[in-house]
Amino acid sequence: MDLMERKNPLSELDIRNMQEGLEEFETEVLQLVSFKLAGEEYAVDVMTVQEINRLADVTRVPKAPGFVDGVVNLRGKILPVINLRRFLGFPPTTEITEEMRTIVVNAEGVLAGLTVDAVNQVIRIPAKRVEKNQDFGSARNLGDVIQGVVHLEDRLVILLDIFRLLNTKSSEKERPGF
Amino acid sequence: MSETFDNEEMREIIQDFLAEAEEMLEGLDTYFVQLEANPDDKTLLNEIFRAAHSIKGSAGFIGLNRIVDVAHHAENVLNQLRQGMMRAEPAVVDIILEAMDALKLLVGEVKSGKPVELDIEGLNMKLDLLLQWGEDVQTESEREAAGVHVPQEEAPTAGDIEEMPGEPSEEDASPSPVLREPVKTEVAVAPAPRPSAPAVEGVTPVPVAGEVDQTIRVETSRLDNVMNLVGELVLGRNRLVRLSSDIADQSEWEIRTKDIAEAVTQLSRVTTDLQLAVIKTRMQPIKKVLGKFPRMVRDLSRKMGKEAVLELSGEETELDKSVIEEIGDPLVHIIRNAIDHGIESPEDRMRIGKRTEGVIRISAYQEGNSIVIEVSDDGKGIDANRIREKAVSKKLITQADADRMSDAETLNIIFLPGFSTAEKVTDVSGRGVGMDVVRTNISKINGSVDIRTRPGEGSTFIIRLPLTIAIIQALMVSIGSEVYAVPLQTVVETVKITESDIKTLSGSDVLNLRNQVLPLLRLRDEFKVPVNGEPDARKNRYVVVVQLGSRLLGLVVDRLPYQEEVVIKSMGPFLSGIRGMAGATITGDGKVVLILDVGEILQDIQFRLNQSVSSVGSAVAGHP
Questions:
Q1: What is the ipTM of this complex?
Q2: Residue A69 within any structural domain of the chain
Q3: First-last CA distance in chain A
């Protein structure tokens, strides 16, 4: 809607649109990067995402917790790579597909790469649409790593708390998976 | 006054003050110890007075009143000293040192912002009393010299002073010893012209006008950054070196090869120079650490009723800043040990024919790629047999081990956690905590510590430290398709063997190396290296023999591709707790290679062996 070209006075519709836009502007809006994992859809705050890379050769780290695939060289920095499937308690996948990616997240200086099945899109939603306090059952290693869920038109997106995720001490989650 | 400066300037002024005050206070410690040995040294006295005065001035400028207060009281006493109206006896020096310690605490309070519990009133009163006493002795001897009979002035007794409300809360503050002694002798000798004559003797003008400072202070974070960049440069150079050698194979590139080779040579040289230059910016003379020791030795020996003096040599030897920060504590432990257990009491020493004063010598020098620090004492040495007995009784080793171990091996038991031969635990040492912490801290900076001793003559602790901790020489080893880096400093030798050379002893793999039993660790199993379809039936194996202290271990690997200088990169907070890995590096082909932490591996093996030893019967080594 280019106001410069407008020759007619603003119509009712225009005014309403502008008002809605203003409303949206005033409420806090979250931008999330959503991705697919084991048939479900998850997301993380875009502010924590540094970059998204294709899978690279990972150097295995003996005696690391089971959900750590290993480390990679990220332009001179050592980046631990976390297998999100394993971390969340899903059975690991055996085949590597073209769509798999490593999402590099940065939480207060702590860097890590999260391997996911496929990266979806960036979603913009008002913060208030995130529903908290859901019970996901004990089957998965989720604990309080989930910040909440978002109901979109046709699907459910689970929002992960990166800070909690990266602050999990290796010793707590240690399973003899080396 | 602080209103005239804005926050930024104020902060800078305070920073400057802190740096200056800390330096001065540190230097003062040494001066005082020297002063005790030469109580009449005018130069020293003037230096000391000037320093205290300067601190008082700067503190006053900023408005740090408590510091001004203490400094002022101390200054009064110091003034008396430097004018020859009071003598720097041990008792006097004790009180002044208390004041110095108080100043350090107060400066520390400014630095950290954490308030400090300090009885300034009590301290000031002590200082005033001292002043008063000094003046009284002075007037009294003047009058005696003038022929007037004066009733013996009662010196403030230790009792009086003890009654002062509260003492400055410091564990190290030595309680004021009885002041009577020195006073009695003083007063008795009153007529001597010494006390009443203010310094008429020509005061040699002290030349130190403040030489122009050739150094600058650099924020260590900046240096860290430069160091990082240099690291990248080293890796880039490695990459080029490999490229260069790869291309050399193809003849059509011959001409290009020469150019590339030249460029590489030049780059290589520059890189090496840059690396050295940057390492140097982080290096500081070791005297920064050694500076506080003369005072510490003095205080400790008085506390334990021994006589000991400290001799230093090689104080200009330089160490990386981070190494300097880490080496202080271990050295303190070793020195405490030497004074507590090494040096005999003055009576004992006299009886054996030694000088009553024990000598602790610290010398630092560079040897090849390492810095060596030797701490030796001329005390009673370490009795290997007593160690054997204690170790067996504490179940740290078996009797069989004890019988088999050589004296040299036995000495290293001292470094095991939980060991101590002290009959009683003094609050200084003997809790069995000191020595193992020493070794751990030294291994943390990739160093090593050994002991040599001669019963009856003394002991020497020899600490070896690498020149820099971030860049090391590493031996690459490969197991299956994986490559790991072993710090070359820990490698003693490499041996090529066949599978049949490996024997078993008590369930563990061992190797007979020149008639010594060498415990082995199969890294393939330890690290659970995936087999990858490669048949494990290779006949040849390589054993990398690593050593830390006197503990040896043979690491069984498949191949030894090469040796390389690598930059140690941190694995980040997420993975830093993993035992056995000291960090990672990035090789010439961009791959990440993990660096082994030999110290931790040795510790874990030791732990497992101990576990299996303590389980009764034939030990099935607890391999997972």
A1: 0.74
A2: yes
A3: 59
- List of chain A residues whose C-beta atoms are within 8 Å of the C-beta of residue B571: 61, 71, 78, 80
Q: Could you tell me if residue A75 is inside a domain?
A: yes
Residue A172 has pLDDT above 70, yes or no: no
Say how far apart CA B185 and CA B207 lie, in whole Å: 36
Contact B364, B313 (CB under 8 A): yes
List of chain A residues whose C-beta atoms are within 8 Å of the C-beta of residue B529: 62
Q: Are residues B577 and B537 in the same domain?
A: yes
Q: Does residue A20 belong to any structural domain of this protein? A: no
* Residues of chain B with C-beta less than 8 angstroms from the C-beta of A71: 571, 575, 584, 592, 594
What CATH number corresponds to the domain at position B497? 2.40.50.180
For residue B413 the two structure tokens come to 């038991």
Higher pLDDT, A126 or B446: A126
Residue of A57, A58, A60 to mutate when probing chain B, most B C-beta within 10 A: A60
Which residue would you say has higher pLDDT here, B173 or B592? B592
Cα dihedral value B172, B176, B181, B182, nearest 10? 80
Q: What is the CA radius of gyration of chain B?
A: 31
Rounded CA-CA distance B416/B402 in Å is: 14
CATH code of A82's domain: 2.40.50.180
With respect to residue B208, please indicate whether it lies within any of the assigned structural domains: no
Rounded Cα distance, B177 and B194, in Å = 24
Q: Which of B466, B501, B524 delimits the end of a domain?
A: B466
Please state the domain count of chain A: 1
Beta-bridged to residue B54, according to DSSP, are none
Whether residue B352 is found in the same domain as residue B446? yes
Task: Identify the three-state secondary structure at position A11.
Answer: coil
Residues B264 and B396 in one domain: no
Q: Report yes or no: B7 and B20 within 8 Å, Cβ to Cβ.
A: no
Q: Identify the residue whose tokens are 């694995």.
A: B571
For residue B237, the domain's CATH number is 1.10.287
At residue A174 the predicted structure's pLDDT band, cuts being 50, 70 and 90, is very low
| pLDDT for the residue A168 | 57
Instruction: Decide if B572 touches A, using CB distance below 8 A.
Output: yes
What domain range is A45 assigned to? 27-167
Is beta strand B471-479 parallel, antiparallel or unpaired with respect to B482-487?
A: antiparallel
Domain extent at residue B225: 220-281
In this structure, the answer to whether residues B171 and B262 fall within a common structural domain is no
State how far the Cα of B123 lies from the Cα of B477, in Å rounded to an integer. Answer: 63
- Integer Cα distance of B137 and B139 in angstroms: 6
Q: Is residue B312 part of a domain?
A: yes
pLDDT band at B420 (very low <50, low <70, confident <90, very high): low
Coil, helix or strand at residue B469:
coil
Per-residue pLDDT tens over the stretch B526-555: 998 887 655 555 678 899 999 876 678 999
Question: What distance in Å separates the CA atoms of residue B458 and residue B382, rounded to the nearest whole number?
Answer: 8
In a domain, A10, yes or no: no
Distance CA B613, CA B277 (A): 50
Structure tokens at B298: 């003095």
Answer whether A64 touches B (CB < 8 Å): yes
Q: Is the same domain home to B387 and B524?
A: no
> In terms of domains, do B459 and B564 share one?
no
- Taking 50 as the threshold, does the pLDDT of residue B60 lie above it? yes
Query: Is B593 in CB contact (< 8 Å) with chain A?
Result: yes
Same domain, B45 and B167: yes
For tokens 């099935």, name the residue: B620
